[in-house]
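Pilot study result, target chain (439 residues):
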Amino acid sequence: MTRIKRMFTDLFSISFYQQYPRYLRSHSLLKHFLILFCLSFSFASAYSQKYIVADSNADCISPIELTDTIYGPTNPPKGFGKTQEMKDFLGNYYYFEKEHNTVWFKFTAPDNCTLTFDIIPVSVNDDYDFLLFKYTGNENNFCQNIKDKKIKPVRTAISRNDKTIQSTTGLKEGKIAQFIHSGPGESYSAPLKVQAGDVYYLALDNVYENGSGFTLKLHYKCAVLLKPQLNISLVDKETGKAITGNIEILDSLQPANAPAEFHAKNVSTHSLSLESSKKYRITATSDGYFSSNITFITPDKPAISNVVISLQKITVGKHLVLEKIYFYGNKAILLPESKPALETLLQTMNENPRLHIEIQGHVNWPHTYLLNATPDTAWIEKLSRMRAKAIYDYLVEKGISADRLSCRGFGNRAMVYPYANNEAEMSKNRRVEILVLAN
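Predicted structure:
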């Protein structure tokens, strides 16, 4: 691209006229030069516009979401946006004295790695400070909590720019300090261990006006996997937002003998290494949510697996389908495979003592069956009640007060697929649901 521009510049220089007069007589060649220049100019313009810092990016609520490890060079940030999120005293380790010319970034760690990064000013005269925050939940509350100083950053460098290193700053291997206050001091703070799926917000502030922009470069140093690695995330089923809860991973080991990393409390994400080709049961709980359990089989070789567990919020009037509840055919006797799901429901009832539920049984008898047989309506109704009562009896036997429970059969009146014609649709009809009555 630069060579094409130089050729075009030479085309209109005096030396080019003198040295290559025959080229100018070639209309075709001149036309090609003009086309190439226009293309190169358009490409250069598009390239320069790729890394734009907008005024809205000066606020935490609308960060630039990184999809690559390099962003820049950019235009200079101007102003602090609509909200002055930072305002503190000089010499603070954790917050800017105030926002001057700010830009926020948001990015997700791709793996369990050591994170470092460089903020490289276009001009050595620009002084960039930064704050790095680990995301903890809903964006609106998260940004407000930063403003209210309820969340501290995990790394900072607010020191004066060092022109001997081109005024760069960031995180660097070998550095020890996690937080660097304003004034003279180190330009780089210590590296940060990150886990796959962790989300971070990075605030950059140029204290000087009329800056020249910068380039941000993220670096991830990741260990070689020796075992399959499992990354677990907890989210709200309806909103998809991260939530905090407890995660327990069980295999053939007794819970009391399981390693500490098999039990994680008050987390939204958790990562650990597991044995190859092995079945694990993962149970997730969170205050105000129905518990959930899943079965996970690790791959037969080292690989990273990402599992998102969606938890249903306990809300009066809401229905929850009890997944993996199985009965013997045409009977109200629970199969052994139902035990994990029953234990999970029991755990929810124990952890939420004010929770009252109605257990609702449903039977599969789609309308397509009417072509071949007449339904025994009385038996269908009875079977649905009996299956709901089986769940009711299990909970009562395990110590849940009968006052908190009721059960009801719906027969085949509330099928998900009234005209089901395959086993997947029929299994959706053959179910037990929970209706939240009070909490």
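One observation from the pilot: The longest helix spans residues 27-49. A full batch analysis is planned for the follow-on phase.
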